[in-house]
Hints:
The complex is a heterotrimer.
Chain A: E1 2-11, E2 14-24, E3 29-33, H1 40-48, E4 55-60, E5 63-64, E6 75-78, H2 90-100, H3 110-114, H4 130-143, E7 148-152, H5 160-175, E8 179-183, H6 187-191, E9 196-201, E10 204-210, H7 211-218, H8 223-236
Parallel strand pairs in A: 3-8, 3-9, 6-7, 7-8
Antiparallel strand pairs in A: 1-2, 1-4, 4-5, 9-10
Chain B: H1 2-12, H2 16-35, H3 39-77, H4 83-113, H5 117-143, H6 147-175, H7 182-189, H8 193-205, H9 207-210, H10 217-223, H11 225-252
Helix pairs in contact in B: 1-4, 2-3, 2-4, 3-4, 3-5, 3-6, 3-8, 4-5, 4-11, 5-6, 5-8, 5-11, 8-11, 10-11
Chain C: H1 2-19, E1 22-25, H2 34-40, E2 46-49, E3 53-54, E4 59-61, E5 66-69, E6 74-76, E7 84-86, E8 92-94, E9 97-99, E10 110-115, E11 121-123, E12 126-128, E13 132-137, E14 143-145, E15 148-150, E16 163-169, E17 172-174, E18 177-179, E19 185-191, E20 194-196, E21 199-201, E22 208-211, E23 217-219, E24 222-224, E25 229-236, E26 239-241, E27 244-246, E28 254-267, E29 270-272, E30 276-281, E31 284-289, E32 292-294, E33 298-302, E34 307-312, E35 315-317, E36 321-324, E37 333-335, E38 338-339, H3 362-369, H4 380-391
Parallel strand pairs in C: 1-2, 2-5, 3-6, 4-7, 5-8, 6-9, 7-10, 8-11, 9-12, 10-13, 11-14, 12-15, 13-16, 14-17, 15-18, 16-19, 17-20, 18-21, 19-22, 20-23, 21-24, 22-25, 23-26, 24-27, 25-28, 26-28, 27-29, 28-30, 28-31, 29-32, 30-33, 31-34, 32-35, 33-36, 34-37, 35-38
Amino acid sequence: MIRFEQVNKHFGKLHALRNVSLNCEAGQCIALVGPNGCGKTTLFKSILGLVVPDSGDISFDGSTLIRSHLYRSRIGYMPQIGRYPSNLSIGQLIYLIRQLREEETQADLELLEEYHLESMFEKPMRSLSGGTIQKVSATIAFMFNPSVLILDEPTAGLDPLASEILKEKIKKELAKGKLIIISSHLLNELDELATQVIYMQEGEIKYHRDITELKEITGETMLSKAVVRMLKQASYV
Amino acid sequence: MYKVLRIVLADILKNRVLLVYTLLLGALAWASFLLEDNSSKGMLTLLNIIILTVPLVSVLFSTIYVYNFNEFLELLLSQPLKRSTVWLGLYAGVSLSLMLSFFIGAGIPLLIFQLNTAGFMMLALGILVSLVFVSLAFLATMFTRDKSKGVGIAVMLWLFYALLFDGLILFILFQLSDYPIEGALMMISFLNPIDLARIMILLHLDVSAMLGYTGALFFDFFGSSTGILLTFIALCIWCWIPFQISLRKFKKENL
Amino acid sequence: MKYLLHILSCLCLFHLQAAGKVWNVDQQGSLRYIRTAVGLASPGDTIYVQKGHFKEGNITINKALTLIGVNRPVLDGQKKYEVVSIRSNNVHFEGFEVIRSGKSSLDDPGGIKVYNCKNVSVVNNILRDNFFGIYIQNGAKCLVRNNQIFAKALNEQETGNGIHCWKSDSLQIIGNRIDGHRDGIYFEFVTHSIIWRNISTANIRYGLHFMFSNDDVYIGNVLKNNGAGVAVMYTKRVKMFNNHFYENWGASSYGLLLKDITDSHIENNQFMRNTIGIYMEGSSRIFVQGNSFNNNGWGMKIQASCMDIDVFSNNFSSNTFDVSTNGTLVLNRFKGNFWDKYEGYDINKDGIGDVPFHPLSLFSYIAEQNAQAMILFRSFIVTLLERSERILPSLTPDEFIDPAPRMNKL
């Protein structure tokens, strides 16, 4: 569904993506892990077209997404830190964003209900806590029933309950055969969700494995441990 | 673009800075028209507003707003929207709101107390100057990702056009006072939108005095309908070009 | 004795009137030509002219007659003749419409021209499209009142002056309207005369123009929108009171240009929207008081060749520049004027500002030397410079001050 071919990206001297080649298919839930500054966000942004690669190609359903914008109607993006125009209320924001996409008649407002955001519709964005903003971000990401979901540290600011609701939602969407890419530091959180793991370091994809395969190779049952073990194996073997 | 514009307007029209700016303009304009016993002093106050306050607020406010809008811009761009649509919508939103502020703050008193050519001229110029400095602000934000640097650039731009540029002309004037450099000066003044606006207003405010300078070519030129037309075209170009450059940069920008 | 004289004069008047015969000129009647009537009449007679269009060429009045137009008969000079020539004392000419005099710069034909006589009155006529309107040459004690004089000239050569007076004495020019001539009112060597309540507008050159005309008084005239405003030269003892000088715009246009004028009074006049309110050159001992200068380019320009000009108690407001000069020597005095640019204070509340005002603007001073600098006028940097100059004069003469500026308008 999304395919990276030899993608390179530099920011000045920083080599943010090194020869990234990648293939993500529908029905997968990919955990994108790696240390800070390893290029996860750049990878996301290049899928969203926010970052244009220096070389290589990224394709979405077989056609290149570089300098195109219509494919994005099929992507839902939840940013790491959502910041919204401070004077808009939640209701206004959601209404206006729905306006942006006139083709969607049926909006998926499940998260909106689960998070009870309607009760706060009048509240301006500037008065919201980080957690609430994350809830809003999540709602927006899932709202248009996208076939690809890109979630950048989705559970970072969420309380356990909200986090659980989100995970349930992700599972539900996964069951519908969507492609979900999640980056997170909290590997345990991803344990029950992810079907694949991509480990990035210094702009490079160190490995891209199926979770079951990964656990088999490393002999670990915990994803977090398996990831680390795998890394050690990779560097020593 | 219209939908992006709606989002920006929905947010910006509730902005407190903008509200304060509108009130400030209104207070200055009403006070200067009501408290002074002759309207020409009011017009002078408005001239100073147009050549100082309007550029400063326009450039600073827009710069800060665009930087603050950055994260949301990413979210907008993750929607199926063209970059140019988003940027244009943002520009339209910011400039419309600043225009509206100027119109409500200064324009209404102008139309009440100066319902004549000079009044309309001032209104048009105030709006154009706002637009030019919004454009320059958009350009400034494209120079650096760093908000404080961007604000610094914006302030420098203002300082340059409001003060330094004229200082430079004054210096040249004194150095070369024996030469007929007026033609060159006229050309140079096209490089400064504030000067253009000021000269236009000057010709309406001080027309009696301007007629006294037989040698003053610039009066003949800027006072003619060709001159007025050219000035307005130049100001429109001043809005257009910085914005176009910023748009071009924005299209290639990594966010 | 006085009583006796009074009776005597009444009798004389009665006698004159009683003696005069009355003639009636009517194009439908038996006496059809004005010229014939003038020929037949004897001094002291009255000729009534009924409504009609008379093309009689030149009508010369060489006797002391009273001519009265009834229902405004038209005297047409057909662009060939001087229409009415008055060559006798004691002529009264009233109620006509005089049009289309000939044009010639050799003998200056006029609509109505008065040659070398006394006690002539020209009252309540309309003059259109004449070369000169009313021309008084070497007259004395003549009265020109309530005439309306119009022309539609496009350049100076095409037309003469509205009311032109030369080498005359004791004239009264009252309540006339002059529009579209070369000069509205022109005086040369005219003395002891009064010019009162005339309106002179849209003339090609000057609304009022006089030279070598001493001891005249100008009161309550309106001089508006004339090509070069008003110019007065080489004259002593002029009094100009309550006149209105409006909208005299242009590079060499003046509300009032004074050149070599001495011992004169300019009081309570209004100067509005002129390029230059008053321009003075080579003038001295002039008292400028109680005038208002509004919305002019320059309120006053006092050239360095002037001295002893007293500018007291005037209003200066909304002028681009209130006062300017071209020299550094200050021989004139300013006192007690109201300046709208004054930003001083009045702690003791006596209506007089406690710090002196420097009416000379730095920038007008700079622009005087280098007109190119005007391109920077009212820019922020120039405003800063002006302000600092007002506080600490360095370039402008620091004795050029009003030591007692008024806080409020007069």
